[in-house]
TrEMBL record, chain A:
CDD domains: TM_PBP2 (cd06261). Pfam families: BPD_transp_1. It is found in: Cell membrane. Belongs to the binding-protein-dependent transport system permease family. CysTW subfamily. Keywords: Cell membrane, Membrane, Transmembrane, Transmembrane helix, Transport. This is Putrescine ABC transporter permease PotI. The keyword Transport applies. GO terms for biological process: transmembrane transport.
From TrEMBL, chain B:
This is Spermidine/putrescine import ATP-binding protein PotA. The complex is composed of two ATP-binding proteins (PotA), two transmembrane proteins (PotB and PotC) and a solute-binding protein (PotD). It is an enzyme of class 7 (translocase). Residues 19-249 form the ABC transporter domain. It catalyses: ATP + H2O + polyamine-[polyamine-binding protein]Side 1 = ADP + phosphate + polyamineSide 2 + [polyamine-binding protein]Side 1. Part of the ABC transporter complex PotABCD involved in spermidine/putrescine import. Responsible for energy coupling to the transport system. Belongs to the ABC transporter superfamily. Spermidine/putrescine importer (TC 3.A.1.11.1) family. GO terms for cellular component: ATP-binding cassette (ABC) transporter complex. The gene is potA. GO terms for molecular function: ABC-type putrescine transporter activity; ATP binding; ATP hydrolysis activity. It comes from Paramagnetospirillum kuznetsovii. Its EC number is 7.6.2.11. Pfam families: ABC_tran, TOBE_2.
Length: 264, 376
């Protein structure tokens, strides 16, 4: 019973703020702390806010692009790390691919900004902070997550399946496409969704690499909040929470499905 | 049970072997997994690699399949040097110990996979798939996924898949390892029958000596990366060339001895464990004093209460232990010196009034032709 109480307490910690925010997004009153009856007018108002809509669209594009790019690159990295066990510097590379997971975001963001500025000065690309710089930055940190997810799936996979395919006459590329890829597909989907959610709610790194022309949604929310919390922001945040929750739910389901033991 | 239709090409010096290992070694770092192996396997053989766990059997097989590259030496299949030939171009197929069936494909698709890689026309693929499935009696399960099959059924599918491409050589890594004893024995028979029918050369890895004995035309006994002896099951059992092989295959009584007198067809050895000299049939002259090991199999040792006839080797002792196994009993007889000898007796009668029991004094005897002198 006590355990149960503790559990509820912990979950309250996690979810009460979000619930409060969601509830107040339906508040008719402009005053955040006063309940003025149920209304969806803030959602309506959001739809007319060009700036918010642009930001949301940009965030979506960035999230989809960076998730896709990091899934492709992360999968390749994972395949090399797991399947090619004997090459120079393997241990170093294994460590290096996971390091960004624990790297403070501020540092990653700052480093990327410096890189972009330097590159612009030297090769003239990328010009300014734009969609491109945000995608590159988001890919950089999502990549590690995807690699870790795919790598664990790959190392669980029986390597003799690939050998069997090769033994039956399939060339390495064919083996990868016909055997490896279908078997690690759940991990690819999970990795993609993870990358997507990481990108869509990123503030810190985006703050460094976004600019006036290209501001993703979390940054817009952040700057609006500095002017005071409004029910409109609550509505916007609620929408973001919904999108992230749905993505996480799908990722969770996929992950669960692959862990279910095969009936013997 | 092993295929008797083939003659013995390995005895014909002019015969060209299908597979030839020439001084093949494999090292993993400093560890030598396979050490200077020379081996010739002929067309149509059922060849088994037998040895204790970790002696390099799988490594040898994987080098033949192309999954490992020899550190030294060369492998030839049908006269072609395989050094530069990748696994997907070798005329061999492997049946994996874990079966390695593709979980996302049906039984049919698993079998058709290899045929598709050869870009055969679809009707041919369909026909061949069906033919091999029928061969292993799995026609009914064509549309199932591997996880919907029992262990024995999966094993059949794995075999069918490896046979579908009609390879020159089929490699089997402990193909029956995952089956229970009964199924295992039935499958051993069946595997030999299938091999007879398709005429493909089989190279099988096993650490089960009974399995190797029943199924093989020849056996290669391995010991820490080396081939200790190659021969037919009878050769290996009756005429082991070394202490290791004698001890590894079947049960063996061994005595340390030294040569006292050597003739053209027999030697007389002195054995400190026994009260008197032994006479053993042996063709090579051995210098006096050569340390040797005398080996005699338990079933070649007769046990009796009465003194054995002249001309036999004999020893005297008391029954220390009796292991009753139903069809046979194994008597452990303790000699005066403390040395133990095993004698195996078939239980011919239901009850025996003169049945031997613990601490009975007995004579053990064996014919000079039924013992062996080992110098290695
Ligand atoms: N990739 C590898 N790296 C390092 N050592 C290896 C590798 N593969 C095999 N070995 C070592 O080589 C030796 C022989 O292995 P192998 O798998 O050939 O044994 P085996 O005779 O098939 O044994 P088992 O009957 O247990 O299957 C073992 O000691 C093993 O540890
Ligand atoms: Mg093995």
């Amino acid at each position: 019973m006590i355990l149960y109480g503790l559990l509820i307490l912990a979950y309250a910690f996690l979810y009460v703020p979000i619930v409060v925010m969601i509830v107040f997004s339906f508040n008719a009153s402009r005053l955040v702390t006063v309940w003025g009856g149920f209304s969806t007018k803030w959602y309506g108002e959001l739809l007319h806010d060009e700036k918010v809509l642009d930001a949301a669209w940009l965030s979506l594009k960035v999230a989809m692009t960076s998730a896709t790019v990091s899934t492709v690159l992360g999968t390749l990295a994972a395949v090399v790390l797991v399947r090619f066990t004997r090459f120079f510097g393997r241990t170093l590379f294994t460590g290096m691919v996971t390091a960004p997971l624990v790297m403070p975001e501020v540092i990653t963001g700052l480093a990327l900004l410096l890189l972009f500025v330097a590159m612009e000065a030297v090769v003239g690309w990328p010009s300014g902070r734009s969609f491109t710089t945000i995608v590159i930055a988001h890919t950089t940190f999502s990549l590690s997550f995807v690699t870790v997810v795919v790598r664990s799936r790959l190392s669980q996979m029986d390597a003799s399946l690939e050998e069997a395919a090769m033994d039956l006459g399939a060339r390495p590329l064919k083996v990868f496409l016909a055997i490896t890829l279908p078997l690690i597909a759940p991990a690819l989907l999970a990795g993609w969704l993870l990358a997507f959610t990481l990108s869509i709610d990123d503030v810190v790194i985006s703050a460094f690499v976004s600019g006036p022309g290209a501001t993703p949604l979390p940054i817009v929310i952040f700057s609006k909040v500095r002017l005071g919390v409004s029910p409109e922001i609550n509505a916007l945040a609620t929408l973001v929470v919904t999108v992230v929750a749905v993505a996480m739910a799908i990722a969770g389901r996929v992950a669960l499905k692959r862990e279910q033991p095969r009936p013997q | 049970m092993a295929s008797q239709t083939t003659a013995a090409p390995w005895n014909d010096p002019g015969a060209k072997p299908l597979i030839r290992f020439e001084g093949v070694s494999k090292r993993f770092g400093d560890f030598v997994a396979v050490d200077q192996v020379d081996l010739a396997i002929h067309k149509g053989e059922f060849f088994s690699l037998l040895g204790a766990s970790g002696c390099g059997k799988t490594t040898l097989l994987r080098m033949l399949a192309g999954f490992e590259t020899p550190t030294e030496g060369r492998i030839f299949i049908d006269g072609v040097d395989m050094s530069a030939v990748p696994p997907y171009e070798r005329p061999v197929n492997m049946m994996f110990q874990s079966y390695a069936l593709f979980p996302h494909m049906t039984v049919e698709a698993n079998i058709a996979f290899g045929l598709k890689q050869d870009r055969l026309p679809q009707p041919v693929i369909t026909d061949r798939t069906k033919a091999v499935l029928d061969l292993v009696q799995m026609g009914k399960f064509a549309t199932r996924k591997p996880h919907q099959l029992s262990g024995g059924q999966r094993q059949r599918v794995a075999l069918a898949r490896a046979l579908a491409k009609e390879p020159k050589v089929l490699l089997l890594d402990e193909p029956l390892g995952a089956l229970d004893k009964k199924l295992r024995e039935a499958t051993q028979l069946e595997l030999v029958n299938i091999q007879d029918r398709v005429g493909v050369t089989f190279v099988m890895v096993t650490h089960d000596q009974e399995e190797a004995m029943t199924m093989s035309s020849r056996i290669g006994v391995m010991n820490s990366g080396r081939i200790a002896q190659v021969g037919t099951p009878v050769d290996i059992y009756e005429y082991p060339e070394s202490r290791f092989v004698a001890d590894f295959i079947g049960a063996a009584n061994m005595f340390e001895a030294s040569v006292r007198q050597s003739g053209t067809d027999q030697v007389v050895v002195n054995c400190p464990e026994l009260a008197h000299d032994l006479i053993i049939a042996h063709n090579d002259m051995l210098p006096e004093g050569t340390p040797v090991t005398v080996m005699v199999r338990p079933e070649k040792v007769a046990i009796s209460r009465d003194k054995p006839a002249e001309g036999l080797n004999w020893a005297q002792g008391v029954v220390a232990d009796i292991a009753y196994l139903g069809d046979v009993s194994i008597f452990h007889v303790r000699l005066e010196s403390g040395h133990r000898i095993e004698a195996l007796q078939t239980n011919l009668r239901h009850t025996d009034e003169r049945k031997l029991t613990w601490e009975d004094p007995v004579y053990l005897s064996w014919h000079p032709a039924n013992a062996l002198v080992l110098t290695k």
